[in-house]
Design goal:
By secondary structure, the chain is mainly α. The protein has 14 helices and no strands. It has one domain.
Length: 344
């Protein structure tokens, strides 16, 4: 007959025994890449969004369309090299990073909720007017004030191309960026930092993501100046205030945010130069957009008293954030349906 020897351990000895185990044994699933993503989803998103885009953009920046280190040029498609030089990196950045982090931290159900917010089209028609027409109106008024009222009517070809250009921008720039910056990051950051705090953090990060492109045709290289890049960063910070307000007031409708975003790009690339030839240089255009964005941001901040239309319960119903990573892992690795996951 064998007798088992029972040895009593003090609480201190038990703690030392537990702490001596490898970290992967104490906290299964927390090691490596996926473990870091689960612990720090927001940090992981921003790192992935920048690294993935910048790596893919590197050939474009180094080519003859940029710094000229590599002796080749990107093909022209629909009058620009950006479709093949910029768009692949844009798609592989914010939207893919958001998908990857959501898939790791929230599983397939989280991905379904994330995609569901991208198709939230049923919003009052007033907001479609605000986003589609409000942006051109703000830029026109600002440019007209700076140009002493000298405004030219755009030619017919511009009017014909405007709506197709807007739709093209929606499925390129809008789709590549906003599912990441707003649908993933802003929805989580607001719950942690509040709407204004989240916007103050997200605006510069959104702008920094674009900076390598200033070393290419996208940013006007080789004639680009540090002042122009600085004005662009200032614009992303100011315009983010307006984007956050629209995002919240429309019940976190991503299509409306995308439309707001691309309305700036579309008007500036199609109609602005023909309407304001005296303010058509890149630096002058940057000054106009910065002034328009700053004015709009100040008006929104005053009107909303800094709340930017945010209601915490709406954010929770939208499925942005919920329990912490540790609590979620204890429950089996998935966030409960209808709850918001805590930001990293």
């Amino acid at each position: 007959m064998c007798w088992a020897l029972s040895v009593k351990r003090s609480p201190r000895e038990l703690r030392m025994a537990v702490n001596s185990q490898p970290a992967t044994e104490q906290h299964p699933g927390r090691a490596g890449f996926t473990g870091f993503v689960r612990r720090r989803p927001l940090v992981s998103f921003f790192l992935l969004a920048n690294v993935l885009s910048w790596i893919v953009w590197l050939p474009y920046v180094l080519s003859a369309n940029g710094l000229g280190v590599l002796d080749f040029r990107f093909p022209v498609l629909l009058g620009t090299t950006q479709f093949l030089g910029v768009l692949p990196g844009a798609y592989l950045g914010p939207i893919f990073a958001a998908y990857l982090v959501t898939r790791i931290t929230e599983g397939k159900e989280g991905v379904r909720r994330w995609i569901g917010r991208m198709t939230k089209w049923r919003v009052s028609w007033v907001w479609y007017l605000v986003t589609a027409l409000g942006v051109p109106a703000a830029i026109i008024l600002t440019a007209a004030a700076v140009a002493d009222g000298e405004v030219r009517l755009p030619p017919v070809v511009v009017l014909v191309a405007y709506v197709p250009g807007l739709l093209l921008q929606m499925v390129t720039t809008g789709l590549a960026e906003e599912p990441g910056w707003r649908d993933f990051a802003l929805a989580r950051m607001q719950d942690k930092f509040g709407p204004l705090g989240a916007t103050v953090i997200l605006g510069p990060l959104w702008g920094v993501w674009h900076l390598p492109l200033f070393l290419s045709e996208w940013g006007g290289w080789p004639d680009v100046t540090w002042a122009r890049a600085g004005m662009f960063l200032g614009f992303t910070c100011m315009f983010s205030v307006v984007v956050t307000w629209v995002f919240n007031r429309t019940g976190q409708s991503l299509p409306l945010v995308m439309l707001l975003h691309v309305s700036v790009n579309n008007f500036m690339s199609i109609a602005y130069t023909d309407m304001f030839p005296s303010l058509a240089t890149p630096d002058q255009a940057s000054q106009v957009t910065l002034l328009a964005g700053t004015t709009a941001a100040v008006l929104v901040l005053i009107a909303t008293r800094g709340r930017l239309g945010y209601r915490r319960e709406v954010g929770r119903r939208a499925g942005g954030c919920g329990r912490s990573g540790a609590a979620r892992e204890a429950a089996g690795g998935r966030a409960p349906r209808g709850r918001l996951r805590e930001a990293g």
